[in-house]
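Q: I'm writing up a methods section and want to include an example of the input and output format. Could you take the sequence below and give the corresponding predicted structure tokens, formatted cleanly so I can copy it straight into the document?
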Amino acid sequence: MNSLCECSITEKQCVILTSALKSNPSHLRELNLSRNKLGDSGVKHLCDVLKDSPCKLERLRLSNCSVTEEGYKALASALRSNPSHLIELDLTGNDPGQSGVKELSDLLQDPNCHLKTLRFLSAAADEACQYVKRVVGKNLLLQRELNLSEREIGDTRVNQIAALLRDKHCRLNTLILSYCRITEKQCVILTSALKSNPSHLRELNLSRNKLGDSGVKNLSDLLMNPQFKLEKLQTVHIEEDHPMVR
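A: Here is the clean output for your methods example:
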């Protein structure tokens, strides 16, 4: 694999690189440009390579390259025009917004697209999305609300949901976890995740759980964060006679 990970490659240098790839495209199968400052403009230059019919690139890694919605759209367009070779695309750690995710999610429905691995998220956050899709039937990255009420999600799921809340792809406005047997420790994990990505959530429902003193304190600290725009918070204490407690 040709790895240029963390080489401080800029958009200008990406132009030079893509020119070289265009001149001799037939042999390269894997390219890792993760953790460089490519931005959308650099990705668009790479898309010119992907569009070329001689391109045989099978694996492309662009994690943490400051790619936004515009870059995701360019990638989707390039792969539609020449879909037959790329089988793995890694875009973790970028910030495409909901429409960017939809562009590539729609691409996966194209029968000509041979992508087998498309990474947007960390492993834990991806598992959270798969779990939600199984129980709710929807792609969480394309939703603004997550309601897991009356499900005992446990430590593993709480950690996965926390990983998703920390991810730039997560744009949830509403998170409802009432009657989920959320413990004090789990509440701390969730609020810590929200502190790291606080700007989107507007409603949080943790009612009928046992949050404990440290859980409540962490929620209070979160409310003091000027970047946190929460408009509705529910934390009513659990009722011991509720069927979820038995």
